[in-house]
Amino acid sequence: MDFEDAYQYVAAEKYGYTLTSFDADFDNTKLGRKTPADVLKEMM
Q1: Contact 20, 34 (CB under 8 A)
Q2: Are 9 and 29 in contact (CB under 8 A)?
Q3: Contact status, residue 4 vs residue 11, Cβ threshold 8 Å
Q4: Per-domain residue ranges for the chain?
Q5: How would you class 25 by CB atoms within 10 Å of its CB: exposed for 0-12, middle for 13-18, buried for 19 or more?
Q6: Percentage with pLDDT > 90 across the chain
Q7: Sign of CA dihedral 42, 11, 3, 6
Q8: Which residues contact 34 (CB under 8 A, 6 or more apart)?
């Protein structure tokens, strides 16, 4: 995971956000991630 991904991860963890990304680097983390398509499916 590069610095930018790590920064996003820490911010999401700190504030309780859901990571929404195309980047599979987040798949092996405690928080995981959702793709934009996943989010759109939830909205419908």
Answers
A1: yes
A2: yes
A3: no
A4: 3-43
A5: middle
A6: 98
A7: negative
A8: 18, 19, 20, 21
Q: Write the pLDDT tens digit of every residue in 18-36.
A: 999 999 999 999 999 999 9
DSSP the chain: --HHHHHHHHHHHHHTPPPB-S-GGGGGSSS--B-HHHHHHHH-
Neighbours of 43 (CB within 10 A): 6
Partner residues linked to 4 by β-bridges: none
